[in-house]
Every structure is written in C-alpha cells, then in structure tokens.
Design a protein that fits this description.
Layout lengths: L1 H9 L5 E4 L6 H7 L3 E4 L13 E3 L8 H9 L3 E3 H10 L3 E6 L4 H14 L5 E3 L11 E2 L5 E5 L4 E3 L2 E4 L8 E4 L13 H12 L7 E5 L3 H8 L6 E5 L8 E7 L4 E6 L2 E7 L5 H16 L4 H8 L10 E6 L2 E6 L4 H12 L5 E5 L4 H5 L3 H8 L4 E5 L8 H4 L7 E4 L2 H11 L5 E5 L7 H10 L8
Helix pairs in contact: 1-2, 5-8, 5-9, 6-7, 8-9, 10-12, 14-15
C-alpha cells in the first residue's frame, strides 16, 4: 500500500493515508515523498471526502474507516484494481509470484531492465537498495510487479495477482502459507491456476522445474509457452546453474541455446541463485541479452531487510532479514553457516500463519543450522515455543521481551559471530536498539 501511495503521488495526485504502526523503511519513504500518514482509522481522516479511497487487504468490515466509506457512498477500490486500471493498462507486465523470493527476484528483474536502459516502472514489496524506492512510475512500456497470492480486499477475496494480467510470469515456488485465508494448499493452487489463465499465448511462463506443487498447477492447464529453471542437479530445466562456488556467490548461468556466463556477485545461498536464474530468464523474454543480465547482477546491491547487513563492528555482523517461513529460514541460515563462524538466529514468529502455529513442526529443523537460537514468545503467539522447539536443546532461548533478547546477545557475542534478526515486522525497534548496544559494548575476542 505504501508503494501504491508512492505511485499515485508520482502520478500527480494528492495522497494521504491512515495506518497503524508504520515502520521503516516504508515510513521513511512516505515521509520523503511528502505523504501524510495519520495514525489509526478515524473516519475524520476521510473529511473532506477523497476522490477515491484505496483499501488494503488488512482492512475488514467493522473497521470504523471502512464503515464510514460504505455509509457515505465514497468511491473505493482495492490497491491491485487501481494499479491495473491506472498504471498497468497497455504495459508489458512482468510479474513474479511464489511463496518465497518474490521481493528479491522482482528487485533483480527491475534492476536488470533498468541497467539495460529499459527504465521500467515497478511495484515491489520491499526497497531495492539500488533504487531506494519500493515503487516507481515510468513512461516505459515495461512494468515489474511483485505478484502476491494474498487476498485482494474485504470485498474481493481473489488473490491480488489476478488483477495484473502479466505477459511475462515467473513462478518461483509454491508452499502452504497464509493459513489465515487459505484452508489448505489446494486452495492456493487454485488461485495460482487463475493467474495462469490470464497470461496470453504470446507471453511466457517461467517456472521452477524442481517444484512439484507448481507442476500440479501447470497440469491444471497452461495456454502459454513455458521455460523452466532449476538449481537441482538431477532435475532437467532450460535454465541451470553450474559450477556453484562460495555458497552461491559464483556460478555459471547455462541455457540450451546460450554460451555459459559466470556470475560473481555479493549475494549468497542457493535460493538467490535460483532467483537470479528466474530474473535472467524473464529479462531475456523482454529482450535483454543474458550477458547484460549477468553484468547487471554483478552490480546488484540486494534489498533492504533481505539479509541486509546493518552493522559490522568488532568482527560481529548483524543482518536484518524478512524470513518468516521455515523454508526461507532454513535457506538463510544454511547460507550463513557455510561461511564459517557462529550463527546466532533471532526469530519473531509474526505472520498470521506463524502465530497460528501452522509451521511449528518444521521450525526446529529450519533453525537447526544456527549455533544459538532466540525465539520471541509474544502474547499473541498461540503455541508454546519451548515445548514445540524442544528439539533444539540447549541452543534455544525463549524470550518474552525484546530487552531480554538484547541482554542475552550482549552476554554471549564474540568477534566472528553473525547475528540474523528474522521478522516481517518492526520487532519493537529491536534492530536499531541492538545495533546501538553492540556499538557501545566491548565484545569477547575483539581487538
């Protein structure tokens, strides 16, 4: 919604908003654009009446502002509908969908197109470091959108991505998530199939060849040419990674009809190798040569809050990461563990699915590669962390407040440690507070 506000502002509209608990980096982006964000959902925020009210999917019936909009007969739209009607019509839309990696892959793709001189517009659920913005309007024919499967609005329960009508569609992976709106995996597959139904015959569907759930969706019907990518050695695919070195920081991009090209970059982990293959394939469909994509990704700086290095001090590195699903958590921690040194993982189970405990059975294994694990037991967490993650043994610490997390880390941090804070929210300002505390502390093993 913050990205949509930015796009509307760039289009020349006066934009205001109401929300609760806005946190960086979006709060900073909105302030820089001169967009007033009013705290809470007081109907007075809608007086004088706006020409159009965009209502995010977090809003539901019973909310005071929603009821006011309906009672007064104000014009309203969902964010995806407004985007489709006002900015995507007539564009070559490149959409990136999947349970994990959407933000990073979308950022890579937008960066590649921009590096190639195509100046795409984009709407991404994070802030690409190379752009400093989560959304950008453009006169270009190309628009990159992170295509989320979450529902659209209280009045439109279809997934958001059915509004975007992409010509190029990336399907990165598919797992069960969003348990607050989807009863089972089949319900998510159904929505992904609705997305496939919107891609034209002249388009291209780029999919992960190693994902059986995506295979099941494609088997429901696909009327568009397809290309596949994979990082799994025994799974065939059009786009592949070979000679992977240094935990994914160097690899060969191979394709049946292209000369292999080596990509050396700053990102790590097989998940990012997979993301890169998908972005390169999508950019090629838009006319960007593979060599140009590789050159662009060698300069790619990553995405804020996606393994973002926020402090390096006395040999300690602290990362901010958005991971909130066991698969993403496991991949993030394995990538760090491969680099050597201790890994200290701090997790806030904050998504609705996490709070419900849907993934708790898989969480201990996902966290197992960390040397120390601190998990925040918030009041709204509906399962017992100590009991359900007992398999982690002595490496697990359960914290009930963020001050306790900082104290626990300061008591054990030593030079060479990597700390990764995993949360899809503000986490009570833990990131900033920990950085400040570490800066002012003498750590064991430091010079």
């Amino acid at each position: 919604m913050g990205g949509l506000a930015a796009l509307a502002r760039h289009a020349g509209h006066r934009v205001t908003g109401s929300d609760a608990g806005v946190y960086p980096p979006m709060s900073e982006q909105l302030a820089a654009l001169g967009i007033d964000v009013m705290q809470g959902y007081d109907p007075a925020h809608l007086d004088p009446a706006p020409d159009c009210v965009l209502i995010g999917n977090v809003m539901s019936r019973g909310n005071a502002a929603v009821e006011y909009v309906l009672d007064k007969g104000l014009t309203f739209r969902s964010g995806p509908q407004w985007l489709a009607e006002h900015l995507l019509a007539g564009k070559w839309v490149l959409a990136v969908a999947g349970t994990h990696g959407k933000t990073t892959t979308s950022s890579m793709l937008a960066w590649i197109l921009d590096y190639a001189g195509l100046q795409p517009g984009f709407l991404i659920g994070g802030v690409p470091a190379d752009f400093g913005l989560s959304a950008r309007a453009s006169a270009s024919n190309f628009f990159v959108v992170e295509a989320d499967e979450y529902d659209t609005a209280f009045f439109d329960k279809r997934s958001k991505f059915v509004h975007y009508l992409p010509r190029t569609l990336v399907l990165g992976n598919l797992e069960y998530d969003h348990a607050d709106i989807f009863p089972n995996l089949d319900a998510i597959k159904h929505q992904f199939h609705q997305l496939l139904r919107t891609v034209p015959r002249q388009g291209l569907v780029i999919h992960n060849a190693a994902d059986s759930n995506l295979d099941a969706v494609l088997d429901m019907g696909c009327w568009t040419p397809r290309e596949s990518f994979t990082v799994v050695s025994d799974v065939p695919g059009n786009w592949r990674a070979a000679d992977v070195r240094r935990s994914g920081r160097s690899f060969l991009v191979t394709h049946e009809t292209h000369k292999p090209a080596r990509l050396d970059w700053q990102l790590g982990g097989l998940h990012n190798v997979s993301n890169a293959l998908a972005a390169i394939a999508a950019a090629r469909h838009a006319g960007v040569p593979v060599a140009t994509s590789v050159a662009a990704l060698q300069k790619f700086s990553g995405v804020r809050r996606r393994m973002e290095l926020i402090l390096e001090h006395d040999g300690v590195r602290i990362y901010d990461d958005f991971a909130h699903h066991p698969t993403a958590i496991a991949s993030t921690l394995r990538g760090l563990a491969d680099d050597g040194g201790r890994v200290l993982a701090v997790l806030e189970p904050r998504s609705n699915t996490m709070k419900m405990g849907v993934h708790k059975a898989a969480l201990a294994e996902a966290l197992a590669s960390a040397d120390r694990v601190i998990v925040y037991q918030g009041e709204d967490l509906h399962w017992d962390v100590a009991e359900d993650l007992a398999a982690l043994g002595d490496k697990l610490l359960v914290a009930t407040d963020t001050a306790g997390i900082i104290d626990a880390l300061l008591a054990q941090l030593q030079s060479g440690d990597r700390v990764v804070i995993m949360s899809n929210g503000g986490f009570d300002g833990l990131h900033r507070r920990l950085v400040n505390a570490v800066k002012n502390t003498s750590l064991a093993g430091s010079d």
